[in-house]
Design goal:
4 helices, 159 residues, flat
């Protein structure tokens, strides 16, 4: 008898007693055929093929008649979403002490002047803050290494 909580192997197939597959065993070892789609999606595709032209025509008519939601649907499919733009912001050397605060202040100034969008500044500020965290971690690692070296030196001198 197996231990409590363990499921014994099913001698008749790859599943265990409660219907779960044993580790490393799949119910579909070959996987599904490449490019296959579920039956429900295939049915929807057939409906779309038959009526898609009429649906599109109705949505376009509504959009032209002033229906904002219909216009939004048409534009969402035909006009690509805006991508972020590359921006150049003069920042101090982030390796210098106190540079992270100065960099964040410059970003705020650029937003206030209208040279940088708030979401762009937020993305750059996130990078500055992550860099500050990395610098702090490196500083802590150096300090810990120095303390450990000092502690080992004191310990070996006592011997």
């Amino acid at each position: 008898m197996p231990p409590e909580g363990a499921e014994p192997e099913n001698a008749g197939g790859p599943r265990r007693q409660r219907g779960r597959f044993a580790p490393g065993v799949s119910g579909c070892p070959g996987g599904s055929k490449r490019g296959s789609r579920p039956a429900a999606l295939l049915k929807l595709d057939k409906l779309a093929e038959r009526d898609a032209g009429e649906v599109l025509r109705q949505v376009l008519d509504r959009a032209l008649a002033g229906d904002a939601r219909a216009a939004e649907l048409v534009l969402a499919r035909t006009w690509p979403a805006p991508r972020t733009r590359r921006v150049t912001v003069p920042l101090p050397d982030l390796r210098a002490p106190g540079a992270h605060g100065e960099a964040l202040a410059r970003l705020a100034e650029e937003v206030a002047r209208g040279h940088l969008a708030p979401d762009e500044a937020g993305a750059i500020a996130g990078l500055v803050e992550r860099h500050a965290g990395a610098v702090q971690l490196a500083d802590l690692a150096e300090r810990i290494a120095a303390l450990e070296a000092e502690r080992q030196g004191v310990g070996s001198a006592a011997l």
